[in-house]
């Protein structure tokens, strides 16, 4: 089989089997045109037919904040991560891997990687997001004997003042 690539180049595929795919790798959208086919007996027939191979640009990684914080009490999931792009997919790996479901729970300090898909092409670079899943601010109590003393401790440093009331 002989075909042209629309750029003036002619290619020959030897031992072509009818119905088989031909691998092409154009860098731009190209029209491939069938010129002739030679059968197993050596008989050549001119024929016509063409196919357009569209080449879409691979998109860049989606945009977003590299550090994203969540409160553990909100039970954050992958669906809570934020990235700007089209058809966002989240992964645990910077390349390859299996997309995470939106219901996957976020873990503190873990990197999550986002890709986007445009015109059927998924970005090969990914947005790297580190999730911070923090405990809600609060205090821990103590038990003391009558007349004794104790200290209240904060579980997390909070900006501002926290007032503690003394139990009567």
Q: Sheet bearing the most strands, described? A: 5 strands, antiparallel
Q: What is the number of strand segments?
A: 13
What is the residue-mean pLDDT, rounded to a whole number?
82
Please mark out the parts with pLDDT under 50 across 5 or more consecutive residues, or reply none.
Answer: 157-168
Radius of gyration: 31 Å
Q: Output the helix-strand order.
A: EEEEEEEEEEEEE
Global structural class: mainly beta
Structural overview:
The chain is mainly β. It has 2 domains: 52 residues, no CATH class; 68 residues, no CATH class. 0% of the residues lie in helices and 30% in strands. The strands form 4 sheets. Strands 1, 2, 3, 4 and 5 form a 5-stranded antiparallel beta sheet that branches.
Topology:
Blueprint: E1 2-4, E2 10-12, E3 30-38, E4 44-46, E5 50-53, E6 67-71, E7 89-91, E8 111-115, E9 117-118, E10 121-122, E11 127-134, E12 139-140, E13 153-154
Parallel strand pairs: 6-11
Antiparallel strand pairs: 1-2, 1-3, 3-4, 3-5, 7-8, 8-11, 9-10, 12-13
What labels describe this entry?
single chain; about 170 residues; mainly beta; five-stranded antiparallel β-sheet; 13 strands; rod-shaped
